[in-house]
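Note to self: the last two entries modelled the partners one at a time, which told us nothing about the interface. This time every component goes in together.
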Amino acid sequence: MYQALLTRRYLFSKVMPLLAVVAVMLCTSMVIVIWSVMGGFLNMLINTGRTLTGDVSIIWPTTGFRYYEDLIERLEKDPMVAAAAPMIETPGMIHLPDGRNEWVLIRGVEGKSYAAVTEYADILWWKPLDKPLPKDKLGEDPRLHGIDGTSWKQIYENGLKLERTNPATGEAEPAAVLGIEVSRFNYRELGGFYTPRTRNVPQPDGSFKMLDLFLPRSGQVTLNVLPTDTTGKGVETATAIFPVANEFQSGLYETDKQVVLVRLDALQKMLRMHPYTAAPEQEMSGEETFAAAPETGPVHVPGRVTHVLVRGKGSEENSAELKARVWEIYDEFAAAHRGEVPLSPTILTWREMNGTFITAVEKETALVLVLFCFMSVVAVFLVLAIFWSMVAEKTKDIGILRAMGASRLGVAWVWVRYGLAIGVVGTLTGAAVAWAMVHNINPIHEWMGRAMNIQIWDPRIYYFIQIPNKVNPTHAAIVVVGFILSCAVGAAIPAGRAAFLHPVKALRFE
Amino acid sequence: MLSTGTAARALGADQPDAANAPLLRVDNLRKTYYLGRVDVPVLRGVSLRVDRGEFVAVLGASGSGKSTLLHLLGGLDRPDKGSESAIEYQGRALGAMSAWELDRYRAEEVGFVFQFYHLLPELTVLENVLLGPMVRYGRLRYMARAKSARAEAEELLNTVGLGHRLRHRPAELSGGERQRVAIARALINQPTLLLADEPTGNLDHVTGGKILDMLMEVRRRRNQTMVVVTHDEETARRADRVIRLMDGVVVAGQ
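The predicted structure of the combined assembly is written out below.
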């Protein structure tokens, strides 16, 4: 009973224990913030990877494989599969309206099937918006108001279909959808939305021309790709001009800066992977054939894709099971097209596709945590040092208690309890501070940018545009319990010292 | 209290001749302190007895071993090896008691009053006094009797004239007032033996006299056995018996 009374009084009557509380609070909040941000970063990485590639990908890069429609049909008949979509992925170069050339990753997709497998419909940026983004307090997002009579609905539909109507002909043409950071024409405002920039471009005659840099309205880009034959040799650079239908924001900066989506059939044509009909002896330049059986009439050569993306019906945790099932289906497919499709393509789950990066981030998270935990051992020694000096200061009290009949264990418990109290108050306050910090980390970061011109979280380095702002309750609980126990350990040694103080020496202590 | 206390049972209070035996019997008590390589014998064969209800003053100059004797009688320290059975309380040797039994002995049988009061500065006057029952009874047993303990503490503090200063901190009290709080704290558990180490040594003559009056009043009311260590002849004069200590040896009043 006296331990509770003394703990309470010792805790609030001196500055030193309050300093210990502050130290524990800072260490706790530091570890929780780091774990939340790094863990959130990892989760965002994993989830974003999944939203762009589905659960499982069947890959035969560069040359691709035929009969993908049959494979997709077989996959979609399976109860484990929700949808499957074809895709071509190839490196290429984009020529932008201001004259810049950038290396990009070009993906050919069918809008509808791609949206069924990924979160494509959600990540299209230019679309009608009912209410402003949470951080757009003034409602300045152009999607709320429009840009010079732009129809957001039309632009959104253009994006879904990956096409745009040519005003001259009235016909829909295959179009490109760029990652929102590809063109660098969109300025990301602090409210989290983008405003298209305008730019004066110098002309050969010395004059300047104001460019309309809102690409989905009337802009176009030129894409250059290098088709290869079955031996991997480049054939002839293919170039095509694409109107821009829309732009997308995956949240993963690297993707938003590098990926350009175009309609599958258009990219197939550029890469000479499109279906065609030819005489048996006739071969398109650079085209391989998968040993088609000799025929007398014209031969229909099916188109090829480099990827088939699969989305499962279960949760993301079932990716491994889905992968095994996809392998079975692929084996059946390969048996049906023996000699015409690769026997052992690469089949990867979304996690395996980003495995190297995810593992690296996991290791980085673990390393940072270990480093910060080492730093937090300081808290233990701080409590130990403070308690050591407090035990010295309270030596006489210990003697008095012993003279009144308090046992060694009872005296030790005063100090361990005291350490626990500092731990509980410090860690819970620290957890609350961490929660507030993590929850408001983006506004805080933006304020630092405005007020001090400091940008700690550079999206070009950390990939994501937003800093993760969720605290994992389990992680927070582990940190809180860990620090409380650390404080108890820090207090245990001085407590032992107090318990074994000779009562007479303690009473005579000056 | 003796017939019901845990320590009293442990100490053999149920023995048939316990009532007639001296409360404390000290026989050839030796205590040496070891300061590095130097042995400092403080008590060199002290023998004495204290009967129930007796007020014994231990008189001696500084360094004569008075306080050491008091600490040994109160179970705060242990005698030299070979001298473990030198102190008997109600027929049982303190040196033979376990650490737990000594803790109980101090909590239930003994009340200490020190020269420098030794109040806990963070606690109020009332809390300092209540510390006694808190230590003695432990959490659950104390909670069961918290109200009565508080009432008793308030009554004791009223008796010593501090009923109006229950919520004051020791730093807000005068020396005499602090010593009165210390006396109330020593008496709250109704100890059989009150041990006081220079209770007036840190007070002026008038205040010291008042404290002594108070102790005499306590003794009269409760038939309290008291052993008071002092170097003050006036305090010694009011005792039933005076034991004079010189260089660790009893020279008179044994």
